[in-house]
Amino acid sequence: MIAEERLNLPLRLRVLQWSLAAVFLVLAIAFWYFQVARHQQFLEMAENNHQRALPLQAPRGVLFDRRGAVLVENRYAFNISIVREQVSDLARTTRLVAQLTGTPIESISEALERSKRLPTYRPTVVIRNVTEAQIAAVAAHRLELPGVIVEKTPTRRYPSESMAAHLIGYVGEVTDAQLARPEYREIPGGAIVGQAGVEQTYNPLLMGSDGARHVVVNSRGREIDVLGEEEPVEGRRLQLTIDADVQRAAEEAFRHYGFRGAAIALAPRSGEVLALSSLPAYDPNAFAAGIGRAEWNGLLTDPLRPLNNRAIQGRYSPGSTFKIAVAVAGLQEHVITPDTRIFCGGGASFYGRFFKCHKAGGHGSVAMREAIEKSCNVYFYTLGNILGVDRIHKWATALGLGEMSGIDLPHETRGIIPSTAWKKQRTGEKWYAGETISVSIGQGQVSVTPISLAVMMASVANGGTRIVPHLVRAVDNGKGWEQLPAPEGQHELGMEPANVDVVREGLWMVVNGAGTGGRGRIVGYDVGGKTGTAQVISNQGKARAKGDRDLRDHGWFVFFAPAKNPTIAGVVFAEHSEHGFNAAPIAKFMMETWFAKEEGRPLPTLGPPPAGTPGAAGTTVVAQRPAPPRTPAAPVAATPSTPTHASTGGAR
Amino acid sequence: MFEQRLYKHLDWFLFGAVLLLCAVGLLMIYSTTYDPIRERVGREFYTQLSACGIGLVAMALVLLIDYRTLSEYAPVFYVGVAVLLLYVLFFGVVAGGSRRWISLVVFNLQPSEFAKAALALLLATWFGQEKLSALRTGDLAIAGGLLLLPFLLIARQPDLGSAVTLLPVLGGIAYAAGLRMRLVGYAVLVFILLAPVTWAYGLKDYQRSRVVTFLDPSQDARGAGYQQIQARITVGSGGLTGKGFLNGTQGQYKFLPVAHNDFVYSVLAEEHGFLGVLGTLGLYLFVLLRSLEAARLARDRIGAYLVVGLASCFAFQVIYNIAMSAGLAPVKGLTLPLMSYGGSSMIATLMSFGFILNVRMRRFAN
After folding, report:
1. ipTM, interface predicted TM-score of the complex
2. Which residues on B lie below 8 Å from A88 (Cβ)?
């Protein structure tokens, strides 16, 4: 060892040693801080680094009819998706995929744009329901298309195509507007949700819960290992209240007779919907496959408004079917007895103005039953005049008219049953007694939805209980079928049984007597019913626009059967069918089908369409295109038809 | 030539600690290069194992010859390494944009790794001359000149990281040789004054971005900051006891680039946790303190300076790499001696410990 005091090497070495020890201590403290103090935070970051949960879409719940027939099921489809993380040149990839699959580049770009907020490792579906040829085209260019994958996903299949389309609805990708709503809080972007009908109302039950595939990926995002899979839980199976055959009967009959419109059949005691159709309709399969822009625009701009659910969204003048409500009001308010007779000479003057009956020669002296049977306008003018608009409003509203039925379908609209308060609020003007005269035969400002007329008919049929129509009977809770309780809102109207009987007898006579409902008669079943004609244009206008089919009156037929113990009640609304009796055969076919099902008999068939109906001329509902075109309807939103009401007229 | 008593004076503790670090390093290379799908380890492991063997042979060879005899040939080694570095510049093997290696068929030799030992031997010999009783500024300038040649040759490769490791060799020896602290103070002052100018004109864009990214890695989380962030996640996720051997996710799934090389310590921290870190930090500190003890015990200044020069270089690399592995220092291509993958580094480091053991072993010799 050298002895160099001035240098004092040992001291310098000691200093070096202590310095090193100090630096190592600092390092140890730093590691302690990261590894012990902040361990949890870094552990989570590490797990997020390499573990990913890729969603496995759950199949939606299957829908059955009331007797177990499958209405909606699932199938598997192939989608082309892009994993953005693995794509270096997104614009080029988008271009190439569009070119290879023959898909408009805009739709791919839009899909990618929508998924911008999702993690980049999540596959974004850019083309749904691809064909084998499209898959092959992409597969052949796999090397040029890193990050482009073909995924197999469950999708909806509607075996009966457009049947009950408005009732069942359709599915589609959740929209940005929906995601902003609280009820969609739990739903991830890109999810397929119900967009109309039962698919929408019962979406939370039908959706099930998605599973997940937990994978380990490397730093390039490539899957290295599968940690495990959480199986998706299929959505709940639902048993609907409808009878597929009655539903089919309604739609077949519409086509058979060449009308479009709406039909609803209810179980009058429970409020179960046995059939609900609106024609023309759309094919929900098109939506399940991922509807193209052109097809969607076609549906939106179609002047026949196939997206509009006429059964719950259409508002029309009820015509003579409204007389049922006026009759109930008259009897319940005791302003008249069943036997009170009123003379009809073909018309009568009220407040200085002459109102005609549809029978120019008059019905003579008629009491309630006969007035209903023959649909005597003068009788109901007089009764309405005695009642006043507010008492008519009271009972019409109680029977469900001008009210929401509460059916478990989205976007229902309400009709209008005028009253003095209503007019005051709407126009600021007072109600003139003369206006009540038109109202009392279902004209003037009265408008109703088909579903509300069906509710009224069910209330009369069941003896005075207002029901709430509903579409689901039971749900598979995972352990078996669980009956769903009837929805709240069903209530007694306090109608006197004798009064109900009188009205029902009148309605029976409409079909089985000298009334206009003869086409609805079914031997042995005591059908009760009432026709109605909703004017689309004033009488004067009608004369000018001779022959234009789109200006012809709408026809109504409300019905129930059997009269003593009704098991079916409902409404048929046949657009531009000119008269209610043209709607009656559709109702008849529905009822016949219903009874055949109930009694286990073979289903009935339709005879040749009667002369004078569009069906007889060989035209079909879908083929008819009215002119001039109207403003296109918004999808599923309420766009009621706005009939031109005449203040007076021949209601039959 | 190799006497029995020298064998008795060999520092077995230091030797054992060095071997232990080599073993830990081998395990970490095994872990970072293991392919769980094919269930086999990467060829890097076997290369490293061979390098350990060669390194131990080189260490033994260095031990056989008295370091004073070797110091007589210090200029020869220095010139030899300089020639090799020059050769590399013109004929070296290019990889990753740098020309650093000489191909020796079975493996590639990286002369810059041997430059440290050669420089340490030359400077120790120069400062250790009897006539040099105290360090003068002029001596320091000459020493700086000796450093500059290999420094520039290595920096030209370019391998600034390795070039910088030569600085602690001079720094350590100069300090041991009596460098006045006032001079160090001046140097620091000059550094501070020149820093803004250097920042503005002396650094390239990517170098500036490295510093900025180091201060705030999130600014460029996908680019320059990526490694720093990933390194910290890797270390932090290890926790107290670690995820276990072969169970580290960050290293195994390649979230950490060149894990077997620059970031081998991060993987150790991930798999063996804070306890593993404490253990290895302790081993490295033990090796360093024990080495400096050898310097203290050395029979002459050449031996003492040689040990201090080599230990300083070793300490600098260890501290910088470990700090970098936790995201505490800017990311720089600097290996962790005895643990990182690299044949030349391993052989050169074991050779260096050969010198250190040599000095201690011969403390009583005439």
Report:
1. 0.94
2. none
